[in-house]
Amino acid sequence: MKEMKKIAEGANFGAVDFGKMSELQEYVLPFGDIQILGKVFGGQAVGAVAGEFSFQVFQPDTEGGFYHSHKTHEELYFFLSGQGEFQVDGVNIPVQEGSVVRVAPAGNRAVRNTGSEPLVILCVQYSGNAFTEDDAADGVILQEKVKW
Q1: pLDDT digits (tens, 9 = 90+) for 74-101
Q2: What is the pTM of this model?
Q3: CB within 8 A of 71, min separation 6: which ones?
Q4: Domain residues of the chain, as ranges?
Q5: Do 113 and 84 contact (CB within 8 A), yes or no?
Q6: Distance between CA atoms of 123 and 78, rounded to whole angstroms?
Q7: What is the Cα–Cα distance from 5 to 99, expressed in whole angstroms?
């Protein structure tokens, strides 16, 4: 079973290496009585406190293990390679490298690979309805120069 490697951490950051996306299938996520092949969560590993993220790979002609929704978490699905279909509330959406799908907590969702190559996904999960108008102006541009 593959494991991520911590590469750096500090008071204000955490960094890990998941390895090559082509090796995601080597991860195994225990989930109750089942094991999900090709899925790994990373939020805790980098010290995230306001969200979670995971990488997952689906081999050709496979689909997600279960149709699901969430109680409070919204999700963004970033499709990094391959092609497939993403279903939300019975609507089938064609997806491929470069596609992004947002799903509200109550949305019933599932994914399947319809292509001949692995379908690789980055999923970012966070509390739904938490972003406010003030958050759009949260960034602070610093005057100091970056020292590489």
Answers
A1: 999 999 999 999 999 999 999 999 999 9
A2: 0.91
A3: 105
A4: 5-130
A5: yes
A6: 6
A7: 28
